[in-house]
């Protein structure tokens, strides 16, 4: 029924009232419109909408509260993602809660969410978080990606017809000058890596067993380019001979925050494994095998045992070694060791770059990506990335070829 409101707070508006039957019970639904034509359209929409609810109201509709439904979604999502990824989803929920309270919109319904809402949210976040930046894979990028995934879920459920977060949201929400160039890893040259390896080997041989762990770890990583969390939990029994060369067959990674293994490789199901890059230097293989003997002898002296099998077990933490959750060396100590050895070897990081273990990963990825003899598929499999991420994130023009190109150019 459509009727014009003649007095009161809504005088001049048109009232739309329908009485659908849901679960055998008659309901009274009343809405308002500005014009008679809008009221007629609204009446049709309501009748169509509630006709689909005759067997019961759905668990979620466009009139559901955004905060309530997103909270449910995040809690459900936690069952199928890693602890690290879950923290990212939980933080997006924290930010949403904070923003809605500030805007006094905690009860906002899904139907009232549009592109402008998230545009305002994005600018609010950047303005109120001084260290935040606008670029790929930052907090604001990942948070908006989480929200977009939620609304895609609603589209699939036919709750909404339009996703309020468009593709390429960062470029739509921010002007070009708002973007940051982002973190840039120091890109080693071949000569620098050669000098680095020599310095690490020299220091390793001059160190005690307990003080040689980080040095051996960084040295091994100059050949493997692993993610730090993968390097930490390398095991002696994962050293295998594959396709004629020694390499590691890995299937786990370490959570620095939770101080325990994640149970899988990054973005891989439990039990999935990959072979790392082959180590063609037999001296490194011999060092690893010799270190296994040295480590066992060292632990025996204290009545301890390496039950985890970790190569890079933290030998200074006797409490963890004697517990059921043995700890490897920390990522911080590995990065510090790399910086320390680079300093001693006279290696200076490039301007506005970051020197860390990931620099070795970028160096080896760039060697692979720039070698026409090696397929990108092989490189991706050994490094544990998709082709898109491998090429866009890790492969840079190596410094030697860049210098050669500069020398070849003349005009």
UniProtKB/TrEMBL annotation:
<dbReference type="InterPro" id="IPR011010">
    <property type="entry name" value="DNA_brk_join_enz"/>
</dbReference>
<dbReference type="GO" id="GO:0003677">
    <property type="term" value="F:DNA binding"/>
</dbReference>
<protein>
    <recommendedName>
        <fullName>Core-binding (CB) domain-containing protein</fullName>
    </recommendedName>
</protein>
<dbReference type="InterPro" id="IPR013762">
    <property type="entry name" value="Integrase-like_cat_sf"/>
</dbReference>
<dbReference type="Pfam" id="PF13102">
    <property type="entry name" value="Phage_int_SAM_5"/>
</dbReference>
<keyword id="KW-0233">DNA recombination</keyword>
<dbReference type="InterPro" id="IPR010998">
    <property type="entry name" value="Integrase_recombinase_N"/>
</dbReference>
<dbReference type="InterPro" id="IPR044068">
    <property type="entry name" value="CB"/>
</dbReference>
<keyword id="KW-0238">DNA-binding</keyword>
<dbReference type="GO" id="GO:0015074">
    <property type="term" value="P:DNA integration"/>
</dbReference>
<dbReference type="GO" id="GO:0006310">
    <property type="term" value="P:DNA recombination"/>
</dbReference>
<feature type="domain" description="Core-binding (CB)">
    <location>
        <begin position="61"/>
        <end position="155"/>
    </location>
</feature>
<dbReference type="InterPro" id="IPR025269">
    <property type="entry name" value="SAM-like_dom"/>
</dbReference>
